[in-house]
Each structure stands twice: as C-alpha cells, then as structure tokens.
Write a structure and sequence with these properties.
The chain is of the alpha/beta class and 218 residues long. The chain folds into two domains: 6-135, Response regulator (Rossmann fold, 3-Layer(aba) Sandwich); 148-214, Arc Repressor Mutant, subunit A (Orthogonal Bundle), CATH 1.10.10.10. It is 50% helix and 13% strand. It is built from eleven helices and six strands. It has helices at 15-27, 40-50, 66-75, 92-100, 113-124, 132-138, 152-155, 159-169, 174-181, 185-199, 204-213; strands at residues 6-11, 31-37, 54-57, 82-87, 105-108, 129-130. The chain has a six-stranded parallel β-sheet with strand order 2-1-3-4-5-6, sandwiched between helices. Helix 5 links the parallel strand 5 and strand 6. Helix 2 (40-50) runs parallel beside helix 3, helix 8 packs across helix 10 and helix 9 (174-181) packs across helix 10 (185-199). The longest helix has 15 residues, at 185-199. It starts with 5 loop residues before the first strand and ends in a 5-residue tail after the last helix. Keywords: DNA-binding, Phosphoprotein, Transcription, Transcription regulation. This is Two component transcriptional regulator, LuxR family. The modification 4-aspartylphosphate is found at residue 58.
Length: 218
C-alpha cells in the first residue's frame, strides 16, 4: 500500500525562493506542495484552507511575520501542521521566539535540497530539526557528541520515561521510540507528554536544549 504524500505549504515573501523550494519539495517522491504564501496573513489563511502536513515558514514577511503566523496557525482548531522556520538569518532571538511559538524546526536557507526534504520527513514523523550552528549556541557550546547521564533522581522520571527521554535526546521520533522499546506509538506519546510536564517544557526541541543546558548531555 502506497504511503500518502506529505503535503507542504511554503510561506516566503520572495517569489524566487518560493519557486526554488517548491521545485525541491515536488521533486521528492513522497511529498508535494499544496499552496504557497507571500505573507504571514496568507500563510494563516492557506493553512486553514489546505490543512498541510508541514509548513515551511519564513520569519521576516510583510503583513504578519512568521512568528505570529506560527502561533496563530498552531492555536487554530483542527489538524495541527508541523512548522519548520526557514530564514536567511542565523539569529538566536528569532530561533528562540519561533521555537517557543511551537515550530518543530529552524533551518537556514542555505540548507541543501537533501537537507530540506530530510527535515520535512523528520518533523512529519514527530521529530525536530535545528540548524547545527544555531543548536551549538542555544545549548551553550556543549560538544555535539552526547553522553547521556541518568536523570531519574533529578526530575522523578520512571524507568520507562527515562528510556523515552534518552531516545528523544538521541533524535528518535515517536515511531522509532515505539519500535526500539516495543511499545504502541500512542503509549510513547503518553510518556512524551509526561516527560514534557516533568521538565516544564513545551516541545521536543526544548527537551534537547534542557538536556544540554542541565548537563544531562555532554
């Protein structure tokens, strides 16, 4: 049985950028562009109309910027898309604000075509992606090769929550965690929710950032 295509909305105020991203996305066999928007306001309207799986969101746009558009789209009723910020600016303030608004990723526009399509697949599966240079600064310059320490005593994880936490930090999606731990994916989602609540963070991206900043990953 053929897997359904990943539907993508592209929001960017530059026509050539929208065209280029659309060519990259439509060249992938497992995804297609359903709409493009030139402003944040258009992105909000088209997201409601087309219910895309993933939105590639520019940050600096006229009318409504990508940060406000992201927050508005994710607060709307109905299916919730995954949003990847795509920007020219490697800026910590932009990254923090749009990730806090609920975006699942933050990439620079110099990403390769393969990197872009891989990022779309990753967030669609429930993972997250951040440009490497941004990640290094957000986590305070820690080394990129993680060594996970036990956090059960520190935050009160159960043994299973610890397993889920470790795999999130290692970059696994919910489906991959389910496979590794021999659990139903709905059970993994429950454990992820408990990990988020115990750490006091809102999404998987911030679980990773928390892990680095608190010395859990070195």
């Amino acid at each position: 049985m053929t897997e359904p295509l990943i539907t993508v909305l592209i929001a960017d105020d530059q026509d050539l950028v929208r065209t280029g991203f659309a060519l990259v996305v439509n060249s992938a066999p497992d995804m297609r562009v359903v709409a493009t928007a030139a402003t944040g306001k258009e992105a909000v309207a088209l997201a409601a109309e087309h219910c895309p799986d993933v939105i590639l969101m520019d940050i600096r746009m006229p009318d409504t910027d990508g940060i406000i558009a992201t927050r508005t789209i994710l607060a709307a009723p109905g299916p919730t898309p995954k949003i990847v910020a795509l920007t020219t600016y490697d800026n910590d303030d932009y990254a923090t604000r749009i990730l806090n608004a609920g975006a699942s990723g933050y990439l620079l526009k110099d990403a390769t075509a393969e990197g872009l399509t891989a990022a779309i697949r990753t967030v669609h599966r429930g993972g997250s992606v951040i440009a490497p240079s941004t990640t290094r600064r957000l986590v305070g310059g820690h080394a990129s090769s993680p060594s996970i320490r036990d956090t059960t005593a520190a935050v009160g994880f159960t043994a299973r929550e610890q397993d889920v936490f470790d795999l999130i930090v290692a970059g696994a999606s919910n489906a991959e965690i389910a496979q590794r731990l021999h659990l139903a994916e709905v059970t993994v989602k429950t454990h992820v929710g408990r990990v988020l609540a115990k750490l006091g963070v809102r999404d998987r991206v911030n679980i990773v950032i928390w892990a680095y900043r608190n010395g859990v990953v070195r």
